[in-house]
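Lab meeting, action items carried over

1. Structure of the two-component assembly. Owner: GW. Status: complete.
Input record:
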Amino acid sequence: MHLFLIGQGKLLYFLTRQMTSQGHRLTLICNDKEEATMLSHQFKAVVLNGDGSNPNFLAEAQLDQADMFLALTPQDEDNLVACQIAKRQHGVEFTLALVNDPDNQSLFESLGVSTAVSATEIISNLIQQQTQFQTLQTITPVAEGALNLLEVILEQDSPIIGQRVADLPLTPAAQLVGVQRQTVLLPDIPTTHLQARDRIIVITPASDTGTCLRALVGETR
Amino acid sequence: MKPTNQYIIVVGCGRLGSILASQLSGQGYSVVVIDRHEYMFRGLSGEFSGFTLVGDATELDLLKRAKVEQANGLFAVTDRDNTNLMVAQAAKQVFQVPLVMARVFDPTREKIYLDTGIQTISPTRLSVDAFIANLNQ
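Predicted assembly:
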């Protein structure tokens, strides 16, 4: 594949390193002269120094040969215009724009950019997933705070999926209250194997809460 | 367009933007002028009685705060072509502003936006035309 990249900095550098090592042909367009020189010394790629959203410059760069055009500058508006020129003037089918403002993702795609990527959006989604996970745990203090009632819904990657209820790695002082599967409270059978989405209710001394939670949801959490 | 009840947004308060906003306001249009730097509003003349808004107009959120969906016209006249082209396309595509115009210095960049519903004005091309027209007189 022949990729055209406009941009600067670490993103351009590492993406170039990655893509050249995978055998792609690369043309880099970089606005900074020193950086362009550095890139041309480092990589087996065509490196051009100039404004990647200038139609004349892009025409000289023989953009019509591109299979993919990636606009990765820190300015959303420059990435939009560059992608639009690539598509409208040079018929490049696949264009990608980096966006900072997550709102620009859908705007750019409605204006003809094939894919708009927002690091802000990706990271905030990850944070959201993490907080959603945390809401699956409920800790209710009882007995004037001496005991905690824990409620945990098992995720796909929980370490205890497939284990028998009797083998739950709780602390000696903690006790399993019950396991709910879908809407049914499971009968008290110690050989039942745990599944994802099972809701486990445990009562534990307050001091053992952390250990019990880690046992149910895994170390990393 | 009659000035009464007409709302115009001017993006960019440089030499062109400040004169444009001041004159429109003087003629009775409701005007909001947007610039990234507050000190740029010093360029507005005494006849300006509109509103100013500090911020980056390439943020859809800022355009919403300027009530762009109620605007009759938007003029994108910052000193950057790409900013003007992006703001103009957002105003047209997302907010369906009836009259959208963008200043674009680079005539080759102007051509690409012929069929997008936004009007572009290239000072470079206008000047060239004016010089040559005078020569041919």
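2. GW to write a short summary for the group page. Key points so far: Residues 25 and 49 of chain B are 6 Å apart (CA to CA). The radius of gyration of chain B is 15 Å.
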